[in-house]
Design brief:
CATH topology of the largest domain in chain A: MetI-like fold
Helix content of chain B: 25-40%
Largest interface: A-B, 22 and 30 residues
Number of helices of chain B: 8
Order of helices and strands of chain A: HHHHHHHHHHH
Low-confidence stretches of chain B: none
Oligomer: heterodimer
Mean pLDDT of chain B: 91
Number of domains of chain B: 1
Number of helices of chain A: 11
Number of strands of chain A: 0
CATH architecture of chain B: 3-Layer(aba) Sandwich
Structural class of chain B: alpha/beta
Largest sheet of chain B: 6 strands, mixed
Low-confidence stretches of chain A: 6-11
Mean pLDDT of chain A: 88
Distance between the termini of chain B: 49 Å
Number of strands of chain B: 10
CATH class of the largest domain in chain A: Mainly Alpha
Strand content of chain A: under 5%
Order of helices and strands of chain B: EEEHEEEHHHHEHEHEEH
CATH class of chain B: Alpha Beta
Radius of gyration of chain A: 25 Å
Radius of gyration of chain B: 19 Å
Strand order of the largest sheet of chain B: 6-7-8-3-9-10
Largest sheet of chain A: none
CATH superfamily of the largest domain in chain A: MetI-like
Structural class of chain A: mainly alpha
Number of domains of chain A: 2
């Protein structure tokens, strides 16, 4: 069967009166970069979750060891994990751990962003600043933040400062370079137009350069926020009195895989929530940005 | 009186070990109210020349004078329209047009009046509060021209402002621009690689050579004003076009040959 090169036409946009053209499965779904019906997208999204839970359930049943209780199975069933989560919240003060972790994330991330964003903007616009800061930052970026933890424990002890520093190291060096790139990409024409309209350097910086970078800076914050969670949990796994990472570590000592999984899923949900908050803020603050996707 | 004068402007770049002579001692004067066009093969340095005229690039040698006074820094006296990235995406069309007036701290009511006038003149009615993302390419460039005009500059510098537009839109924009010029009689220095555009719009055409860019020929366009679309078909237009096409073709060939010689 010969395939015709398909026109890029929306499948749903065909007028009702037109005779429905039959398309093969391959041409409808397997043409690179071609849109598929909206309903299919929604269905596939749900099916993805269902498949994961189904596989999980099958593995849990296959590996079930009838000599030990349901909650200490190595692979607990999904419903056992749900029960464990409710128990964690109701009886084990898990929400306090979530609170501690959230506090550390927000504080560490804010401290990193507070310095990284202005420095990145300066590096992206002034060659003199970039020449000084970029080489060391580039080098440190490849040193994993988690490798600093033992050193930081020696220097700062086991308190909150150490946790915040780990997050700060993990976020700062990445973010600074991302912001630098954003600043660097601001089209020179945009600035030049302002000069020919009579703007001073300071006015160009304030009224053109800064607003031109804002939307992408918020995007960069959103992305690095995700990384901050990774570093936080590592820091809490190594040494902490509270926090989700600490909770996971204790659960491991008692062979409570159900609690570990419940905690991990909680982190995922927290990540989704922050992502959603950033996305919502982005849409509200920058309604003028042209959408690249969708 | 608003004239712009380039005196013996030369431009050299150093790339690696090689020194590149981009512009070689160019002198030209655009007198008050004249529409001057610069055409040339790509890479001949015509955009660089305009950047120098705007004060955005410092020439290696030479001076720029506006009304006899040195103008080495960019300023509101020389408004510029670029080919792309022209509007500020975070400002509405109206705020974009008022940008220069805001810098000058012109009172709000006056700003509004001026921008409303230009929005109407540029056929942007109904889009005053829209963000640039809602505009077509042609509308964006009309807004960019309006923004430059709102400032009432002495000289208008245009760097291939219609270069990114499709042929039909470009035609419409050229007609609009010639009407505008008829109305405001601004001194304009207009860079383009489109020969017909230069003939249709200009009083004078400077034809540049291949790098190092020099002005090879200066042609007067004696087509009557106001210019209309029908003139594009006239024998006089065709004759001018053939003349310029011949020169540019020769220069483009030289460019290819010198590239081959280097390879």
């Amino acid at each position: 069967m010969s395939e015709r090169v398909p026109a890029t036409r929306s499948v749903t946009a065909s007028p009702a009166t037109a005779r429905r053209r039959r398309r093969s499965f391959v041409s409808t779904y397997l043409t690179p970069k071609r849109g598929i019906p909206r309903r299919t997208i929604a269905i596939l999204g749900v099916v993805g979750f269902v498949v994961i839970i189904a596989v999980w359930t099958v593995v849990a049943i296959l590996t079930y060891n009838k000599d030990v209780p349901a909650e200490v199975q190595l692979v607990p069933r999904p419903d056992v994990v749900v029960v464990a989560w409710i128990d964690m919240v109701a009886h084990l003060g898990f929400l306090a751990d979530v609170g501690w972790s959230t506090f550390r994330i927000v504080a560490g991330f804010a401290l990193a962003a507070l310095i990284a964003v202005p420095l990145g903007l300066l590096m992206g616009s002034f060659e003199i600043v970039r020449a000084f800061f970029q080489p060391p930052i580039n080098a440190i970026r490849y040193m994993p933040a988690s490798a600093f933890i033992p050193l930081l424990i020696l220097l700062q002890g086991l308190g909150e400062t150490e946790k915040l520093t780990v997050i700060w190291i993990g976020v700062f060096f990445q973010l600074v370079l991302m912001v630098m790139d954003i600043a660097h990409r601001v089209p020179t024409e945009m600035l030049n137009v302002a000069y020919t309209l009579g703007a001073s350097r300071w006015t160009v910086f304030r009224k053109v350069f800064l607003p031109a970078t804002f939307p992408e800076v918020v995007d960069a914050l959103r992305i690095t926020m995700g990384w901050a969670w990774t570093y936080l949990i590592v820091a809490e796994l190594v040494a902490a009195q509270a926090g989700i990472g600490n909770f996971i570590l204790i659960a491991q000592r008692y062979f409570r895989a159900d609690r570990i999984i419940a905690a991990i899923i909680t982190i995922g949900v927290l990540g989704l929530i922050t992502d959603f908050l950033f996305a919502t803020y982005h849409r509200w603050a920058f309604p003028y940005v042209e959408k690249v996707h969708g | 009186m608003s004239e712009i004068r380039l005196i013996e402007v030369a431009m050299r770049f150093t790339t690696g070990r090689r020194q590149v002579q981009a512009l070689e001692r160019i002198s030209l004067t655009v007198p008050d109210g004249q529409f001057a066009c610069i055409v040339g093969p790509s890479g001949c340095g015509k955009s660089t020349l305009l950047m120098v005229a705007a004060g955005l690039t410092e020439p290696s040698e030479g001076d720029v004078l506006v009304d006899g006074k040195p103008a080495s820094e960019p300023g509101a006296d020389r408004g510029m329209v670029f080919q792309s990235y022209s509007l500020y995406p975070w400002l509405s069309v109206r705020r974009n047009i008022e940008f220069g007036l805001e810098i000058k701290r012109i009172p709000r009511t006056q700003r509004r009046q001026r921008s409303s006038e230009l929005i109407h003149l540029m056929k942007l009615d109904g889009f005053a509060e829209a963000y640039p993302k809602a505009l077509s390419g042609g509308m964006k460039q009309r807004a960019a021209i309006a923004r430059a005009l709102a400032n009432d500059p002495q000289v208008l510098l245009m760097d291939e402002p219609f270069g990114a537009l499709d042929a039909q839109t470009r035609q419409i924009m050229q007609e609009l621009l010639t009407d505008l010029w008829q109305r405001y009689r601004k001194t304009v220095l207009f860079v383009t690689h489109d020969i017909e555009e230069a003939i249709f719009l200009g009083d004078v055409i400077y034809v540049m050579t291949n790098r190092p860019g020099r002005i090879r020929t200066t042609l007067r366009v004696d087509l009557p004003r106001p210019r209309t679309f029908e003139m594009v078909g006239s024998p006089q237009f065709a004759e001018l076009r053939n003349q310029v096409v011949g020169i540019i073709h020769e220069e483009s060939l030289k460019a290819v040959e010198s590239e081959l010689a280097r390879a």
